[in-house]
Amino acid sequence: MAQVTELEDRIGKCNKILNENPNSQIFAALAEAYRKKGEIDKAFRICQTGLKIHPNYGSAHMVMAKINFDKGLYDWSEMEVQKVVELDGASHATESLMSEIHIHRGEFAKATKILNRLLEADPGNRHVRKLLDLAKKLPGESPVPIQKKAPEKTPEPKDVESEPQSEQRAEVKITYKELLDFIAGVRGVEGVLLINREGLVADQRWDDAQEAELYGAVARDIETTVQSQIEIANFGDYDSILLEADDMIIKMIPLENNLLLIKANKQINLGTLRLKLPALLSKLDNDLIR
Question: Which domains does the chain have, with CATH numbers?
């Protein structure tokens, strides 16, 4: 109870500062407080908004890494940890979180390597020792429910000397809402649309609603034209459509019964987006409520 009261007090103080100065870096502390309180979605929104103003604030990227971890999105958590290392260098915090990411993905050998290094530097650290025991124990027995949400039952792991195969990892599914949220949080992204077959916007992360509807209609027309021409030329299926202008980039990706549109400025790292999107889209659950 005392911890909850302390968090409420911290949230109140941080909100007051942020209301007085919306550009304050206090957003990271506020997001972390909400995360610890269990309000993950609110923590994500606050941290995402703050990072758009302060994209090079390493502490905020660390908070976002923890938020993604709590949501079971370990690939995105790792991406944020890498951003922290890029900005501020590696630390005990980044190494410790990476070890937990490896454990939750079933990469026990990688986790053990990191944890042995941390334990050598700090032999009395109980948390590190506990994680190391877990990393050594899990490969020899049935997987335990290590996700925040109850996972489906997974088969007994095979006896292997290295890391378990990918099929032994608990599969994480995300909703369309989460998909749009995470893409909107990528540096350089200015808007994300989910467009249905009729060219109507089903969901959006866009500042101007009227502009979003216009982009949605035009994007569906472009996609329909491209699809028809590809069929005529017998080129097969396509993965995405990329349009580049002087001041923006538009990427359209066909999904099941929908079209995903990403609008970005020239600061976006398209290589990172290309690497991360397939992994994220593979986790999309079309049966989940949007």
Answer: 2-168 (1.25.40.10), 176-282 (3.30.450.30)
